[in-house]
Amino acid sequence: MHGRVFGGFLMYRAFELAFSTAYAFAGLVSCFSKVDHIEFLKPVDVGDFLRFRSCVLYTKPEGHEQPLIHVEVVAHVTSPEKRSAEVSNTFYFSLAVRPEAKAMMKKDFKIKNVIPETEEEARRMVAHGF
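and the corresponding structure tokens:
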């Protein structure tokens, strides 16, 4: 509408990347748990060059039937001719490892523990309710 990309489309693409990131990280299929937070910072115009980046921010592996993997996805609108990029959206998803997927693995299988490395990462996690 009005030459802009619908936010739901961006959210869907970000979720696909978050799912793939969690799968690659855990080595097991995960399932959607919740959308923790979304920030629409800058509109994305139809035809813009969009780049997504994702990372595992935090995990809750111990003491949970379904270990949680918290993934951050950041979308950048990139302008190759100007050699610049601006953050347009940030998405925070939580995905859970299914008990049946975990059961198919070895009994001693564990999800790696990821905690914030810097004070800034810790602030981001607290701000988004992790």
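(Above: one complete record from the training split.) The longest helix spans residues 7-26.
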